[in-house]
Each structure stands twice: as C-alpha cells, then as structure tokens.
C-alpha cells in the first residue's frame, strides 16, 4: 500500500510536469541576447491546462480502478479459502478501497487546482 501511494504521487507529479510542456515559453534570437516573447494566446494556456488535468485524472483513475479490482479479487479469494474470517477480510478490503479512492479524489483536486489556480 505504501509503495502504491508513492507511485500515485509520482505519477501525478510527472503528469503535471509533462503538462507544462504545452505552455509556450520565451525563445532567444540567434544573433542577440534579447529574449523574444513567443506569441501566447489565452486559448493555448487553457488547452494546456485542460490536457494536463485530463491526463492526471485519467491516469490516476485508471490505476485506482485497477488496484480496487485487484483488492476485491484477492479479498474474495481469501474469503473463499477461509470463510470463518470473511467479515474481517471484507472490512480490511473496504478500508483499502477507501484509501485508494482518497488518492483518486486527491488527483481530482490537483486537476482542479491546475485548471483554476495555475
């Protein structure tokens, strides 16, 4: 669980930095040291933010859905093998799914911050 949270946070940071590649930057003229402003359009920045937010939410939601499916699969196998502790297994599975869903909600919050604050 600890490694999966590290992986999710790394994916969010990686996707956010990839999204910065869509934002136009300054370019320098070859023969002078003067910075030439690239023509930026408000739509370019908005599109870059939207693409970044969409990638963040899509990647984290798909990884979260896969991990929830894996948790449910393994817990149902464990309950089938030892029916006497099925209640405890179900409780632990639900707790794990809550933590995974929390990570997904955090990625949604990061995507909202990217779109509206940055």
List keywords for this structure.
75% helix, two-stranded antiparallel sheet, F1FO ATP Synthase, mainly alpha, rod-shaped, 118 residues
Sequence-ordered SSE layout with sheet pairings:
Layout: H1 2-19, E1 27-28, E2 35-36, H2 42-81, H3 86-116
Antiparallel strand pairs: 1-2
Summarize the structure.
Helices cover 75% and strands 3% of the residues.
Outline the structure in words.
The chain has a two-stranded antiparallel ribbon with strand order 1-2. The chain has a single domain (2-116), classed as F1F0 ATP synthase subunit C (F1FO ATP Synthase, Up-down Bundle), CATH 1.20.20.10. The chain contains three helices and two strands. The two termini are 31 Å apart. The protein is mostly helical. Helix 1 (2-19) packs antiparallel against helix 2 (42-81), helix 1 packs parallel to helix 3 and helix 2 (42-81) packs antiparallel against helix 3 (86-116).
CATH class: Mainly Alpha
- How much helicity do the residues have? over 70%
Global structural class: mainly alpha
By CATH, the superfamily comes out as F1F0 ATP synthase subunit C
Q: Which runs of at least 5 residues are low in confidence (pLDDT < 50)?
A: none
How many distinct helices? 3
């Amino acid at each position: 669980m600890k490694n999966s949270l590290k992986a999710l946070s790394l994916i969010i940071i990686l996707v956010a930095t990839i999204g910065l590649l869509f934002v136009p930057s300054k370019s320098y003229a070859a023969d002078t040291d003067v910075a030439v402003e690239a023509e930026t359009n408000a739509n370019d920045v908005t599109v870059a933010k939207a693409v970044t937010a969409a990638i963040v939410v899509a990647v984290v939601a798909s990884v979260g859905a896969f991990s929830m499916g894996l948790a449910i699969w393994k817990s149902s196998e464990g309950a089938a093998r030892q029916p006497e502790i099925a209640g405890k297994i179900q409780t632990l599975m639900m707790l794990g799914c809550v933590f995974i869903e929390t990570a997904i909600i955090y990625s949604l919050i990061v995507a909202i911050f990217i779109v509206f604050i940055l």
